[in-house]
WhiB family redox-sensing transcriptional regulator
Amino acid sequence: MTSSLDLTPSAAPSWMGSALCAQIPTEQDLWFPEPERGPVIAWAKRVCARCPVRSECLEAALALSGPDAPRGVWGGTTAHERERIRSRRRAARRGQAA
Ligand code: SF4
C-alpha cells in the first residue's frame, strides 16, 4: 500500500489513463468541492457511474486513510462515504477474526 496517491503523469496508476473525469474539461472544484455541495457531488457521481475504471478508482481512494485520504469524489463516493465503507470493512474483518 502506498502512503499517498502520486498523480504525476509518470507515477499515476495505469487505470487513470481510462478515467472518464480526465476526459471532461472542467474546473477542479467540481471534483473537490469544499464544502461538499450536493448538486456538484451529484454531477460528479453521475460521471463516475459511467466511468470504466470506477472500481479501481474507488479501491485506490479507500486504500488511503487519515491525512493521506483523498478528498472530493472518487469512484462515485465522497470522502465521508468512503470512511463509512472503510468502517464497514474493518467491522467485517473483525467479525471474521472472531
Ligand atoms: S470513477 Fe469518477 S473520479 Fe474515478 S476515475 Fe472515474 S470519473 Fe474519475
